[in-house]
Design brief:
The complex is a heterodimer of chains A (327) and B (304).
Chain A lengths: L1 H19 L3 H26 L8 H18 L6 H20 L4 H20 L10 E2 L16 H22 L2 H11 L1 H6 L4 H27 L1 E2 L1 H5 L1 H14 L6 H20 L3 H19 L4 H13 L4 H5 L3
Antiparallel strand pairs in A: 1-2
Chain B lengths: L17 H33 L6 H19 L3 H27 L4 H23 L14 E4 L2 E4 H23 L1 H11 L1 H6 L4 H23 L9 H16 L4 H21 L5 H15 L9
Antiparallel strand pairs in B: 1-2
Helix pairs in contact in B: 1-5, 1-8, 1-9, 1-10, 2-3, 2-4, 2-8, 2-9, 3-8, 5-6, 5-8, 6-8, 9-10, 9-11, 10-11
Chain lengths: 327, 304
């Protein structure tokens, strides 16, 4: 009961945020947090729950972004039309990468995802149809509401909030389905899970494909908000890094972990960019690197795991129950 | 744009026939491949011994390049001083990284292992970026000899030096692992660290030494490449993937495998740059990697 109470309070706060803190900067910041939370939650499906660390998730992000912008730039259609295309391409790529590598140890999967991300970035940078190094632009002046091109960040905020809710809903459903049980068994001990008949490779592949599709939606939304995509903003390895570290910082394999991570890191980056200007870009990533190292070294479970443990100790409960329920 | 790894293999100046150009491209590829083999040996050593993939490996190469650059700026000294210093600096870093990070994440979950070394990669890459900026730096072109002719082939002295030294050091690494008592101890730890410990070998020391050797060799390779290559903070990304390709092609844990694969990749890269265009050479290598993962994940010489 207490859980639901807390959840409703949190939800009310999130819904009210852009109305209370209503300067354009604050609204935009809120929208960005939600956008990255969508991407990080999508990563969480394969990186957290399936325990397969993808370092090339930006490929799927880019597929969505390029499909959305391509629908407008080449066919004059609403960027929305590109979303299903991006999902299909992303799922196809994830299958091609996942089928061979998910049979092997996790290192191969991580290396393959990096290689694919770089390969796709190089191909796109040299493809004129996709705008080569310049990229593709969306509608400069919105023709109708379906172009999803707004000046204010407010509509984006609620759009992203809806999509985030759907993403978390899908994740929650997956975790509590048969697949979720398989995934947990595989993550704890793949050998044991296999010997008990859990289809390890196939389950991991499904998680990867689901994650790819969801990430591609995040990419499409990103492109719509910013109105353009180029190889750096849509396919740069640093986007993968951001997505990954948000999920890991908040708590990989926990439902709200990515949201917590995004809520900490996005404002941090905006502020450090504002304070440090151009030089800040390098320093921000120094900080990111140091944070990832520290998380890996001292708290691989992320901040939420830490909070859960402290909370459970205070209430004299077993720390495991919170995590096991997926929250 | 990406640095052009094949650079000036003197194709533009060549006055020979088609076949002599091809020979020249292949020789250039072999020399480059030897350097690939050297830094991939470092990756394969650590991977084979501790089952850890160092995602910061390419950035170790990058650091080696910057050490060579700093040595040149401060003392005006060429690779004869830059390379040993780079090896020393990186070996020290390797030991620090082992005791500060690797020893603890080794027993942890896969997520912690990958995050840890990946975070280290970012930390190194952007510290250098922050300090030196994103500009392309380079050592003076004539720091090592110039260009000269051997049996009708025009070869840059810097590439020749890099290739030959890298080849010798890689062979030395192989001999160290297979012919010395230190090597046997390290292989014993790799095989079964508990059993090795019962035989009076300290796994911790051996693994620290392995990190020192691996990082040192990588730094050396970086300093060698720096003599003919653009120096930029993000260069480690490309070179890191080259190392992954080499190791997965050669079979993990195998130095001879890394040598053969490194030479092969050097040649493939040079040939594809010459035949299809410099822009596509990285694509060829990455596709090769993915193709190998599909059809022969254990590599050319490895066994599953």
């Amino acid at each position: 009961m207490r859980r639901w109470l807390w959840l409703s309070v949190a939800l009310a706060l999130v819904v009210a945020y852009p109305l209370v803190l209503s300067t354009p900067f604050q609204q935009r910041l809120g929208a960005l947090v939600l956008l990255y939370a969508i991407a990080a939650s999508a990563w969480n499906v394969v990186g957290g729950y399936a325990g397969q660390v993808s370092v090339g998730h930006v490929v799927f992000f880019g597929c969505g972004a390029y499909a959305a912008m391509g629908a407008y730039a080449h066919f004059g259609l609403s960027p929305l039309v590109g979303i299903p295309v991006g999902i299909v391409v992303s799922v196809a790529i994830s299958a091609v990468v996942g089928v061979p590598t998910l049979r092997l140890s996790g290192h191969y999967f991580s290396m393959a995802t990096i290689a694919v991300a770089e390969l796709v970035r190089l191909i796109v940078t040299n493809t004129d149809y996709l705008g080569a190094a310049v990229g593709l632009s969306g509608p400069t002046v919105p023709r109708n509401v379906f172009d999803l091109s707004f000046i204010s960040a407010l509509p984006y905020y609620y759009l992203f909030l809806t999509i985030l809710a759907i993403t978390l809903g899908i994740t929650w459903w997956m975790v509590n389905s048969r697949m979720g049980f398989y995934l947990r068994a595989i993550r704890d001990s793949e050998r044991a899970a296999r010997s008990l008949g859990a289809p390890a490779s196939r389950t991991k592949l499904y998680a990867f494909m689901l994650s790819a599709g969801l990430t591609s939606v995040a990419g499409a939304l990103y492109a719509m908000m910013f109105g353009f995509v180029d190889p750096e903003s849509g396919l740069g390895i640093l986007i993968s890094v951001k997505i990954l570290i948000m999920a890991a910082l908040g708590g990989a394999g926990l439902l709200f972990g990515p949201l917590v991570g995004a809520a900490i890191l996005v404002p941090l980056e905006e502020i450090s960019n504002n304070l440090l200007g151009g030089k800040g870009a390098g320093l921000t990533f120094v900080l990111y690197g140091a944070m990832i190292v520290l998380i890996a070294r001292f708290q691989p479970g992320g901040i939420l795991t830490l909070i859960n443990r402290v909370w459970a100790k205070r209430n004299g409960r077993m720390p495991k129950t919170e995590a096991a329920r997926g929250a | 744009m990406r640095p052009n790894l094949i650079g000036r293999v003197a194709i533009e100046k060549n006055h020979g026939t088609m076949s002599s150009i091809l020979v020249q491209v292949i020789v250039g590829g072999l020399l480059l491949g030897a350097v690939y083999a050297l830094f991939s040996s470092g990756l394969t050593l650590v991977w084979g011994m501790m089952n850890i993939v160092n995602f910061a490996h390419g950035d170790f190469v990058m650091l080696g390049m910057y050490v060579a650059f700093v040595v040149w700026t401060l003392f005006g000294a060429g690779p004869w001083a830059g390379a040993p210093i780079a090896a020393l600096v990186l070996a020290t870093l390797g030991v620090v990284v082992y005791f500060g990070l690797i020893r603890d994440i080794m027993k942890g979950p896969m997520l912690a292992q990958i995050l840890g070394t990946f975070g280290l990669a970012l930390l190194l890459r952007y510290s250098v970026f922050w300090w030196f900026g994103a500009n392309f730096l380079s050592l003076p072109e004539n720091l090592v000899g110039g260009t000269f002719d051997i049996v009708g082939l025009r070869i840059q002295a810097s590439r020749l030096l890099a290739g030959v030294v890298a080849l010798l050091v890689t062979l030395g690494l192989h001999l160290l692992l297979t012919r010395t008592s230190l090597g046997s101890k390290m292989l014993a730890v790799a095989e079964d660290s508990t059993a090795a410990q019962l035989m009076g070998i300290r796994p911790d020391t051996m693994q620290a030494i392995a990190w020192a050797i691996a990082a040192g060799a990588t730094g050396l390779a970086g300093a060698l490449i720096a003599t003919f290559f653009y120096i930029v903070p993000t260069v480690g990304e490309t070179l890191g993937i080259v190392a992954f390709v080499t190791v997965s092609l050669g079979g993990f844990g195998s130095v001879p495998g890394a040598l053969v694969a490194g030479l092969l990749i050097g040649v493939i890269e040079s040939l594809s740059a010459y035949l299809i265009g410099a822009v596509y050479k990285d694509m060829v290598v990455y596709s090769l990697f993915l193709g190998f993962l599909w059809f022969r994940p254990q590599g050319l010489m490895g066994k599953m």
